[in-house]
Amino acid sequence: MTHTDLPVIPASLPLSVRAVQGVADTEIHAVHHAPGPVGFDTVGALADQLCRTYGAHLLRAVVFGELTTAPPAHDDRWIWVRPTTHTGEPGTSIELMALAPHAPGDTTVARLTSGASVVTHRTLDGSRVRRFVHCLPRPAGTGTYAQVTHGLEVVEAALREAGMTPLDIDRTWFFIADIGSSYSALNKARDEAFDRWGIRRYPASTGIGAALPPGAEVSMVVEASAQETARDTETDPAEGKILTVLSTPLQTAPSEYGPRFVRGNLLRMAGRRTVNVSGISSIDAQGRSITSEDPSVCVDYAMRSLLGVLAAGGTGPQDICSAYVYCRDPAVRAAFSAYLAAQDLDFPHLLTYVPVCRPELVFEIEARAVRGEPTGTQ
Fold first, then answer.
1. N or C: which end of the chain has fewer CB within 10 A?
2. Is residue 74 pLDDT above 80, yes or no?
């Protein structure tokens, strides 16, 4: 695959695909929607098709909905989230994230002993750029606090194996089986890890309720990136790593009222501009919940907040490659669908019915927007 030659998506591939090229590889996000439950072999078959088509390496698979067969115990590149507050529509949705090197040797993708994936390439000046993706669908331990603590310890060890540190973490997800009573346990375990690691620039993050695989009180995803500059050289900023915290005047930073994460961040690295928007709901600039009997009020405020963070990072809804939508019930989903239609918005997303971070809130959304960013080598 060359830098400018992406294959045409074959009609036989039942996936909606968005691909964004960088300096040495192409980031691919693909979504499949099924009207009902599917077996995990379907997920595996779709991933195999996608990777064969693009010459890509799978980094993670996320499933929203019901599976008739469980994911394999030997492969942790997956997260399975089932609805809890309503069990009807929207069926089962699958998102695959993969990376395709532009040429042999441009990029290497390695699996660590922990199951994490590490992507590595070198810029023209010899600097090494690394990207880390780690899914932990079932951390060891009993209870949310123990599982988050253990999961973050596993992440720390995997980062060390990759030649990275927790200070390189950019994005996290925490899917919690009982968010109503366990959100404080998540925050306690995360705060302790951040204090131990010395993290002061918090990552973008999502903490959301979900029905999880047997034995899991929490499922986690952690992403990190790093750039090791070659000595006595100057790296093009678009090839190296620049991480900027993003905000919106509609909402205050979550760390102002408790949880240690940011509304969003902008990652400029390896020829791509990536905006990670944390899970965002209808919370005002003073940290107070905005509620209404009309769910469209809550959806509107959350969506305007989302678009504000995207704009702060120099992107827009047209750049969204991945989005997860969390609704309390079908009425909230209908309000979200109506908002998309009224604003003429269309972007790939997975949707499920789960409780969000506060019991009075009914809607939450997160997104990743990616666009190519020319570098001095192009």
1. C
2. no
Cα–Cα distance, 107 to 119 (Å, whole number): 7
Alpha helices of the chain — where are they, by DSSP H?
Answer: 40-54, 144-161, 179-197, 295-312, 330-343
Q: How far apart are CA 51 and CA 83, in angstroms?
A: 28
* 297, 255 Cβ separation under 8 angstroms: no
- Select from 321, 368, 316, 327 the least CA-distant residue to 347: 321
Give φ, ψ of 173 to 5 degrees: -130, 140
For residue 277, what are the β-bridge partners?
Answer: 264, 367
- Reduced to 3 states (helix: H, G, I; strand: E, B; else coil), residue 14 is coil
Please, which contacts does 227-233 make with residues 24 or more away whose CB atoms are closer than 8 Å?
Answer: 227/127, 227/128, 227/129, 227/130, 227/269, 228/127, 228/128, 228/129, 228/130, 228/163, 229/127, 230/125, 230/126, 230/127, 230/128, 233/125, 233/126, 233/127
DSSP bridge partners of 171: 204, 223
Tokens of 314: 């120099």
Claim: this prediction has a pTM higher than 0.70: yes
- CA distances (Å), 40 to each of 45, 63, 93, 209, 355, in order? 9, 9, 12, 22, 25
Nearest partner of 40 among 13, 76, 15, judged by Cα: 76
Q: How far apart (Å, rounded) are the C-alpha atoms in residues 17 and 86?
A: 28
Residue 18: left if φ>0, alpha if ψ -120 to 50, beta else—which one?
A: beta
Q: What tens digit of pLDDT does each residue of 307-337 get?
A: 999 999 999 999 999 999 999 999 999 999 9
Strands 78-81 and 57-64: parallel
Across 70-84, 153-167, 186-200, 266-280, least confident range: 70-84
Q: What's the confidence (pLDDT) of residue 268?
A: 94
Among 138, 123, 201, 203, which Cα is nearest to 175's? 138
* Dihedral (CA of 256, 259, 264, 269) sign: positive
